Amino acid sequence: MLKNKLAPSILNADFSCLRDVLFLLEQCQVDLIHLDVMDGMFVPNITFGPKIVASIRKNTHLPLSVHLMIEKPERFIKEFSSVLEDKDCLIIHAEASLHLDRTLQMIIDTGLKVGIALNPSTPLEMIKFVLEKLNLILIMTVNPGFGGQQFIPAMLPKIIYAKEMASNSKNDIEIQVDGGVNMENILQINKAGANILVVGSEIFGADNPAEMIKSIQKKLQISEKTQ
Protein backbone atom coordinates (compact mmCIF):
# COMPACT_ATOMS: atom_id res chain seq x y z
CA MET A 1 0.00 0.00 0.00
CA LEU A 2 1.31 3.42 -0.95
CA LYS A 3 1.86 5.91 1.85
CA ASN A 4 -0.61 8.76 2.26
CA LYS A 5 1.12 12.06 1.54
CA LEU A 6 0.27 15.72 2.03
CA ALA A 7 1.49 18.06 -0.72
CA PRO A 8 0.80 21.70 0.17
CA SER A 9 0.38 23.91 -2.89
CA ILE A 10 2.02 27.29 -2.43
CA LEU A 11 -0.05 28.94 -5.17
CA ASN A 12 -1.91 31.09 -2.63
CA ALA A 13 0.97 31.52 -0.20
CA ASP A 14 2.62 34.90 0.40
CA PHE A 15 5.51 34.99 -2.08
CA SER A 16 6.98 38.07 -0.40
CA CYS A 17 8.14 35.75 2.40
CA LEU A 18 8.61 32.55 0.41
CA ARG A 19 11.59 31.38 2.43
CA ASP A 20 9.47 31.55 5.59
CA VAL A 21 6.75 29.53 3.85
CA LEU A 22 9.25 26.83 2.90
CA PHE A 23 10.64 26.79 6.44
CA LEU A 24 7.12 26.34 7.83
CA LEU A 25 6.47 23.37 5.54
CA GLU A 26 9.76 21.77 6.55
CA GLN A 27 9.03 22.29 10.24
CA CYS A 28 5.63 20.65 9.74
CA GLN A 29 7.35 17.72 8.00
CA VAL A 30 5.05 17.65 4.98
CA ASP A 31 5.82 15.00 2.40
CA LEU A 32 6.39 17.23 -0.61
CA ILE A 33 5.66 20.69 -2.01
CA HIS A 34 3.38 21.25 -5.00
CA LEU A 35 4.30 23.97 -7.48
CA ASP A 36 1.79 25.21 -10.08
CA VAL A 37 3.46 26.57 -13.21
CA MET A 38 0.96 28.42 -15.45
CA ASP A 39 1.58 30.11 -18.79
CA GLY A 40 -1.61 32.15 -19.36
CA MET A 41 -2.41 30.05 -22.44
CA PHE A 42 -3.18 26.51 -21.30
CA VAL A 43 -4.87 28.06 -18.25
CA PRO A 44 -6.13 31.65 -17.75
CA ASN A 45 -3.42 32.65 -15.29
CA ILE A 46 0.36 33.20 -15.11
CA THR A 47 2.48 32.19 -12.15
CA PHE A 48 6.25 31.55 -12.42
CA GLY A 49 8.90 29.70 -14.39
CA PRO A 50 12.17 27.80 -14.00
CA LYS A 51 14.01 30.58 -12.11
CA ILE A 52 11.51 30.60 -9.23
CA VAL A 53 11.44 26.80 -9.21
CA ALA A 54 15.25 26.83 -9.00
CA SER A 55 15.12 29.22 -6.05
CA ILE A 56 12.60 27.04 -4.25
CA ARG A 57 14.71 23.95 -4.93
CA LYS A 58 17.74 25.64 -3.34
CA ASN A 59 15.80 26.62 -0.23
CA THR A 60 14.19 23.33 0.77
CA HIS A 61 15.20 19.70 1.08
CA LEU A 62 11.62 18.51 0.51
CA PRO A 63 10.71 16.79 -2.78
CA LEU A 64 8.93 18.98 -5.31
CA SER A 65 5.89 18.15 -7.41
CA VAL A 66 6.14 20.53 -10.38
CA HIS A 67 2.84 20.76 -12.25
CA LEU A 68 3.30 22.26 -15.71
CA MET A 69 0.02 23.82 -16.81
CA ILE A 70 1.56 25.05 -20.04
CA GLU A 71 1.09 24.55 -23.77
CA LYS A 72 3.60 22.25 -25.47
CA PRO A 73 5.52 21.38 -22.29
CA GLU A 74 8.17 19.60 -24.35
CA ARG A 75 9.62 23.06 -25.05
CA PHE A 76 10.61 23.48 -21.40
CA ILE A 77 11.50 19.99 -20.14
CA LYS A 78 15.23 20.79 -20.34
CA GLU A 79 14.89 24.11 -18.46
CA PHE A 80 12.85 22.68 -15.60
CA SER A 81 14.75 19.41 -15.29
CA SER A 82 18.05 21.27 -15.04
CA VAL A 83 16.96 22.92 -11.77
CA LEU A 84 15.36 19.84 -10.20
CA GLU A 85 16.66 16.71 -8.48
CA ASP A 86 15.98 12.99 -8.94
CA LYS A 87 13.53 12.96 -6.01
CA ASP A 88 11.32 15.54 -7.75
CA CYS A 89 8.39 14.84 -10.08
CA LEU A 90 7.66 16.75 -13.27
CA ILE A 91 3.98 16.63 -14.26
CA ILE A 92 2.62 17.51 -17.68
CA HIS A 93 -0.96 17.65 -18.95
CA ALA A 94 -2.18 14.95 -21.32
CA GLU A 95 -4.11 17.62 -23.21
CA ALA A 96 -1.10 19.91 -23.72
CA SER A 97 1.30 17.74 -25.70
CA LEU A 98 0.52 16.39 -29.17
CA HIS A 99 3.16 13.64 -28.94
CA LEU A 100 2.54 12.56 -25.36
CA ASP A 101 4.64 9.40 -25.35
CA ARG A 102 7.65 11.30 -26.70
CA THR A 103 7.31 14.07 -24.10
CA LEU A 104 7.04 11.58 -21.25
CA GLN A 105 10.18 9.85 -22.50
CA MET A 106 11.97 13.21 -22.47
CA ILE A 107 11.21 13.49 -18.75
CA ILE A 108 12.28 9.90 -18.09
CA ASP A 109 15.60 10.59 -19.81
CA THR A 110 16.29 13.43 -17.34
CA GLY A 111 16.07 11.03 -14.38
CA LEU A 112 13.10 12.80 -12.80
CA LYS A 113 9.90 11.12 -11.69
CA VAL A 114 7.17 11.35 -14.31
CA GLY A 115 3.59 12.49 -13.78
CA ILE A 116 0.64 13.11 -16.05
CA ALA A 117 -2.32 15.36 -15.24
CA LEU A 118 -5.88 15.19 -16.54
CA ASN A 119 -8.44 17.98 -16.59
CA PRO A 120 -11.91 17.11 -15.22
CA SER A 121 -13.42 16.47 -18.65
CA THR A 122 -10.49 14.39 -19.96
CA PRO A 123 -11.12 10.62 -19.90
CA LEU A 124 -8.56 8.29 -18.36
CA GLU A 125 -8.52 6.25 -21.56
CA MET A 126 -6.29 8.97 -22.99
CA ILE A 127 -3.35 7.67 -20.94
CA LYS A 128 -3.87 3.91 -20.91
CA PHE A 129 -1.12 3.31 -23.49
CA VAL A 130 1.53 5.29 -21.58
CA LEU A 131 0.99 3.90 -18.08
CA GLU A 132 4.33 2.09 -18.13
CA LYS A 133 6.09 5.45 -18.29
CA LEU A 134 4.36 6.95 -15.25
CA ASN A 135 5.14 7.31 -11.57
CA LEU A 136 2.08 9.44 -10.89
CA ILE A 137 -1.39 10.28 -12.21
CA LEU A 138 -2.76 13.67 -11.20
CA ILE A 139 -6.55 13.96 -11.27
CA MET A 140 -7.65 17.58 -11.45
CA THR A 141 -10.80 17.97 -9.37
CA VAL A 142 -11.32 21.59 -10.44
CA ASN A 143 -10.75 23.25 -13.79
CA PRO A 144 -7.12 24.38 -13.47
CA GLY A 145 -5.95 27.96 -13.38
CA PHE A 146 -6.94 29.38 -10.02
CA GLY A 147 -6.79 28.40 -6.37
CA GLY A 148 -9.76 28.37 -4.03
CA GLN A 149 -12.23 26.56 -6.32
CA GLN A 150 -14.84 24.04 -5.17
CA PHE A 151 -14.16 20.32 -5.51
CA ILE A 152 -16.14 18.69 -8.36
CA PRO A 153 -17.93 15.67 -6.78
CA ALA A 154 -18.24 13.90 -10.16
CA MET A 155 -14.46 13.35 -10.03
CA LEU A 156 -14.72 10.75 -7.24
CA PRO A 157 -15.56 7.90 -9.67
CA LYS A 158 -12.67 9.06 -11.84
CA ILE A 159 -10.29 8.77 -8.88
CA ILE A 160 -11.56 5.23 -8.24
CA TYR A 161 -11.03 4.31 -11.90
CA ALA A 162 -7.55 5.85 -11.91
CA LYS A 163 -6.63 3.76 -8.87
CA GLU A 164 -7.88 0.61 -10.63
CA MET A 165 -5.80 1.43 -13.71
CA ALA A 166 -2.74 2.06 -11.57
CA SER A 167 -3.22 -1.17 -9.62
CA ASN A 168 -3.39 -3.17 -12.86
CA SER A 169 -0.21 -1.63 -14.26
CA LYS A 170 3.33 -2.91 -13.79
CA ASN A 171 4.44 0.28 -12.03
CA ASP A 172 3.76 1.55 -8.51
CA ILE A 173 1.79 4.54 -9.77
CA GLU A 174 0.69 7.06 -7.18
CA ILE A 175 -2.63 8.89 -7.50
CA GLN A 176 -2.54 12.60 -6.76
CA VAL A 177 -5.60 14.86 -6.48
CA ASP A 178 -5.53 18.63 -6.84
CA GLY A 179 -8.42 21.06 -6.51
CA GLY A 180 -10.80 21.95 -3.71
CA VAL A 181 -9.33 19.47 -1.23
CA ASN A 182 -10.25 20.42 2.34
CA MET A 183 -10.89 19.02 5.80
CA GLU A 184 -14.44 18.03 4.89
CA ASN A 185 -13.65 15.91 1.82
CA ILE A 186 -10.06 14.80 2.26
CA LEU A 187 -10.89 11.38 3.73
CA GLN A 188 -13.48 10.70 1.02
CA ILE A 189 -10.91 11.53 -1.65
CA ASN A 190 -8.26 9.42 0.06
CA LYS A 191 -10.56 6.42 0.38
CA ALA A 192 -11.46 6.72 -3.32
CA GLY A 193 -7.83 5.93 -4.08
CA ALA A 194 -5.75 9.12 -3.95
CA ASN A 195 -2.69 8.79 -1.75
CA ILE A 196 -1.18 12.24 -2.51
CA LEU A 197 -3.46 15.11 -1.53
CA VAL A 198 -2.64 18.59 -2.82
CA VAL A 199 -4.01 21.18 -0.41
CA GLY A 200 -3.61 24.91 -0.96
CA SER A 201 -6.28 27.40 0.13
CA GLU A 202 -7.31 25.29 3.11
CA ILE A 203 -3.78 25.67 4.50
CA PHE A 204 -2.71 29.15 3.45
CA GLY A 205 -6.15 30.68 4.03
CA ALA A 206 -6.24 29.36 7.59
CA ASP A 207 -5.58 31.57 10.62
CA ASN A 208 -2.90 29.11 11.70
CA PRO A 209 -1.45 27.22 8.70
CA ALA A 210 0.76 25.02 10.89
CA GLU A 211 -2.20 23.79 12.94
CA MET A 212 -4.20 23.14 9.78
CA ILE A 213 -1.34 21.06 8.37
CA LYS A 214 -1.18 19.03 11.60
CA SER A 215 -4.94 18.42 11.48
CA ILE A 216 -4.77 17.19 7.88
CA GLN A 217 -1.76 14.98 8.63
CA LYS A 218 -3.59 13.43 11.57
CA LYS A 219 -6.59 12.60 9.38
CA LEU A 220 -4.41 10.99 6.73
CA GLN A 221 -2.48 8.97 9.31
CA ILE A 222 -5.70 7.65 10.87
CA SER A 223 -7.06 6.82 7.41
CA GLU A 224 -3.85 4.94 6.54
CA LYS A 225 -4.16 2.76 9.63
CA THR A 226 -7.75 1.79 8.79
CA GLN A 227 -7.11 0.89 5.14
Describe this structure in words.
With 227 residues, the chain is α/β, with parallel strands linked by helices. The chain has one domain (5-226): TIM Barrel, CATH 3.20.20. Helix content is 34%, strand content 18%. The protein has helices spanning 18-27, 50-58, 77-81, 100-110, 155-167, 186-192, 201-204, 209-226, and strands at 5-8, 33-38, 64-69, 89-93, 113-118, 136-140, 174-178, 196-199. Strands 1-8-7-6-5-4-3-2 form an eight-stranded parallel sheet. The longest helix is centred in the C-terminal third of the chain and has 18 residues, at 209-226. The model has no long low-confidence stretch (mean pLDDT 95).
Largest sheet: 8 strands, parallel
Helix content: 25-40%
Tell me which CATH architecture applies here: Alpha-Beta Barrel
Unreliably modeled segments: none
Structural class: alpha/beta
Q: What Rg, in angstroms, do the CA atoms define?
A: 16 Å
The arrangement of helices and strands along the chain is EHEHEHEHEEHEHEHH
Q: Which outline best applies?
A: globular
Tell me the CATH topology: TIM Barrel
Indicate the multimeric state: single chain
Q: Number of helical segments? A: 8
Calculate the terminal CA-CA distance, rounded to whole Å.
9 Å
Strand order of the largest sheet: 1-8-7-6-5-4-3-2
Number of domains: 1
Write a brief structural summary.
This protein has 227 residues and is α/β, with parallel strands linked by helices. It is 34% helix and 18% strand.
Keywords:
eight-stranded parallel beta sheet; 8 strands; alpha/beta; globular; TIM Barrel; 227 residues; 8 helices
